Sequence to fold (393 residues):
Amino acid sequence: MGDTRFIDAAERRARLGVRHRLAGSARATSAAEVGGALVALHGTDPASVFLAVAARLTEGVGPVGAVERALYEDGALVRMHGMRHTVFVVPSSLAAAVQASTTRPAAVRERATLLRHLAVGSSFDEAWLAETERLVLAELAVRGEATGAELGEAVPRLRSTYVYGPGTRQEGVQSVASRVLRVLGMEGRIVRGRPQGTWTSSRFRWALAEAHPERDPAGARAELLGQWLGACGPATEADLTWWTGWKVTDVRTALAAVGAVPVTVDGGTGFVLPDDPGPVPEPEPWAALLPALDPTAMGWQGRDWYLDGDHRAALYDRSGNVGPTVWWNGRIVGGWAQRPDGSVAHRLLADAGAEAERAIGAEAARLAEWLGEVRVTPRFRTPLEKELSSGGQ
Fold:
């Protein structure tokens, strides 16, 4: 590998600032543009999608309206299960590739698991599940959209329960509704629509989904990996395996299919697309306040080039979910939280200098202004976020 190009941490941070639309001159004018730049926005916490887009939009573009138009009106973005069995918001142009490469195999496992649980914890079988699903789809065809509760009223079978893990320490009663809707969603037969309530709500309405075109899984993996390398390259094989959730052999096959070029990065070998340009000019100094689960903070398994390992315990929970972070020129330098009075508090974990403090303070003020009366609490609480939100300095 002695003749491969070396991409150091500074160049990786420069790429991040421009390609992730975080530097001021690189900010986007629409939610669809942000989604395309990042490939996938973590959607487990609905508020994170809006906050991630807001951090990357130019002044004067309303984040809430921009995201809602893209998701619910023009269909430029779609919410679906994807990589690592996680809910993401992805460009609709990539939905078929995500479905074929990642979601469909997970859906097969999800259905098998549900049938196994029903067989042990109830008298329901495959025929019962198929009829229940038929009734749900027929109801949505009539209604157009409905919440889980509304579907439960219309399809009494959804109110059934079963015993999960009988005879084990995990034994408990679970609802059929959430599992059935989850399977139908993962199979691409129904889709999450507008939430019941504000944009921070996770109680979504469901609607029939447009069928994804059939895709060859290998080709779909190559398309998705190529898009992600364009946004996040260089990335190591470990980064790619972690982000996609695929087998190593599938990652290697996709790398070969897109003609990925090996480069040297700190800690090993990374890959970029064959037409990826050479050294990237460093953008102007930039600051950003990114939300919990932001795709930039969660984009790579190896994070030493943008995260001080001593700060990990304060910024991530025990499961590895990142909380709200403060960035300066491509590095995480602290964390932030919204307090009950609506103010945005932040703390720097490293001395970033006076210019950074001014820029970060301006971003905090900008965030607090557009949030207004809305209060946002991350679904996965982290130590520093908890401390700051309760009044800690």
Observations:
- The chain has a mean pLDDT of 94.
- Residues 307-389 form one domain.
